């Protein structure tokens, strides 16, 4: 199905199911409630077939370009329906599993698409966040299995996940990124402990994970042994492509919400609010163009290079600028309000603070741009 036809048919379906979709426009403000409601949205979209487009038929999909998935998330955002949390994990992790471990994807992807399972990303460690090449969680060779021991931290939504894409050291520390292997780990395996971490928003959206001699079958290896860095780079590329496209679509929607608030009694002064709106729109459109380019390259089978770091910088700049404006335009809601809208604005603002950290800090991205694109000295 081509993009234009898909957009039109999905639009008609949404119009026909407006009553079913209405409950998803106003989510609970607690994470347990959000996961439950958004899981219902995911199953509704899967049962209607929409979530299966853009994925290979051998993996439970209906085929077609991966760009169809971008159209889906864009149309949902325009209709005021946030994408389910697992959309992010689908677009970050599932393409990497499909590319590097298609045999795993054949059985693992359908329950992820249906919303029966969730995945998490076990990358960061206490002393290896942006510097993943120094990670220390170890997978020892046990013959037909790996024995995994170590710790991960800042793992988003790990307490709801059934599977984890885990980076482990299988080589020596001196091998750095060349000694890392990616594994597909069941979260209910003996020896896995998950401890939620409460963020400043009050939500425990992160977790730290401990692996105590966890047995992982060798057939759960993603890609080549020692080839985990290639998997990592592909995952990060997907964050710059489909996920950035999703994010900018949602941020455009929130910008519209703020402009409505500014025009109906918000506290932003006319001139300053107009200037902020112009800058924010320009930032969002720059992100839209950059993420479109990266998304199309991924759809063509390419792995974007250092230039994708520009996308991540733009995403952090746009998101933080958007919600800095919210402080000026809806200050009572953000700072002191206690109704549903106020709690939603506050949650969005708190989450935006992390935009320059998650997925590679802005400082690291600027170093990559400086060294690899501009040719500046280290």
Report what the structure shows.
- There is one protein chain.
- The chain is an alpha+beta fold and 378 residues long.
- 52% of the residues lie in helices and 14% in strands.
- The strands form 2 sheets. The chain has a 4-stranded mixed beta sheet.
- A hairpin with an 8-residue loop joins strand 6 and strand 7 (206-217).
- Helix 4 packs parallel to helix 7.
- It is globular and about 65 Å long.
The appropriate CATH architecture of the largest domain is Up-down Bundle
Strand order within the widest beta sheet: 1-4-5-8
Gyration radius (Cα, Å) is 21 Å
Uncertain runs: none
Quickly count the helices: 12
What is the first-to-last residue Cα distance?
A: 47 Å
Tell the overall outline: globular
CATH class of the largest domain: Mainly Alpha
Structural class of the secondary elements? alpha+beta
Task: Write the CATH homologous superfamily of the largest domain.
Answer: Butyryl-CoA Dehydrogenase, subunit A, domain 3
What can be said about the biggest beta sheet? 4 strands, mixed
Please give the oligomerization state of what you see. Answer: single chain
H-E order: HHHHHHEEEEEEEEHHHHHH
Number of DSSP-assigned strands: 8
Mean pLDDT comes to 90
Total domain modules: 3
Q: Tell me the helix content.
A: 40-55%
Predict the CATH topology of the largest domain.
Butyryl-CoA Dehydrogenase, subunit A, domain 3
Share in β-strands: 5-15%
């Amino acid at each position: 199905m081509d993009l234009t036809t898909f957009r039109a048919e999905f639009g008609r379906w949404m119009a026909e199911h407006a009553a079913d979709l209405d409950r998803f426009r106003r989510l609970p403000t607690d994470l347990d409630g959000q996961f439950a409601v958004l899981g219902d949205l995911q199953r509704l979209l899967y049962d209607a077939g929409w979530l299966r487009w853009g994925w290979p038929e051998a993996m439970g999909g209906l085929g077609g370009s991966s760009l169809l998935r971008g159209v889906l998330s864009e149309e949902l955002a325009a209709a005021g329906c946030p994408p389910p949390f697992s959309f992010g994990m689908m677009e970050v992790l599932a393409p990497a599993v499909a590319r590097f471990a298609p045999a795993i994807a054949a059985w693992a992807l359908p329950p992820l698409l249906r919303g029966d399972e969730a995945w998490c990303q076990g990358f960061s460690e206490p002393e290896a966040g942006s510097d993943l090449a120094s990670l220390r969680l170890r997978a020892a060779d046990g013959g037909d299995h790996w024995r995994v021991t170590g710790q991960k931290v800042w793992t988003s939504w790990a307490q709801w996940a059934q599977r984890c894409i885990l980076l482990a050291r299988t080589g020596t520390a001196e091998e750095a990124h060349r000694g890392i292997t990616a594994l597909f780990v069941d979260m209910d395996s003996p020896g896995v402990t998950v401890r939620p971490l409460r963020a400043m928003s009050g939500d425990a959206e992160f977790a730290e994970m401990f692996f105590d001699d966890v047995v992982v079958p060798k057939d759960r290896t993603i890609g080549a042994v020692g080839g985990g860095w290639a998997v990592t780079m592909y995952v990060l590329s997907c964050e710059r492509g489909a996920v950035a496209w999703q994010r900018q679509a949602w941020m455009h929607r929130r910008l519209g919400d703020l402009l409505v608030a500014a025009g109906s009694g918000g506290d932003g002064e006319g001139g300053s609010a107009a200037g902020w709106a112009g800058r924010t729109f320009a930032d969002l459109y720059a992100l839209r163009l950059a993420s479109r380019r990266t998304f199309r390259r991924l759809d063509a089978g390419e792995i974007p290079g250092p230039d994708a770091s520009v996308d991540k910088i733009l995403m952090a700049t746009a998101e933080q600028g958007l919600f800095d404006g919210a402080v000026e335009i809806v200050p009572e809601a953000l700072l002191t309000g206690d109704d549903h809208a106020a709690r939603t604005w506050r949650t969005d603002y708190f989450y935006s603070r992390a935009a320059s950290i998650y997925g590679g800090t802005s400082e690291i991205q600027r170093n990559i741009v400086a060294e690899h694109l501009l040719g500046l000295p280290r």
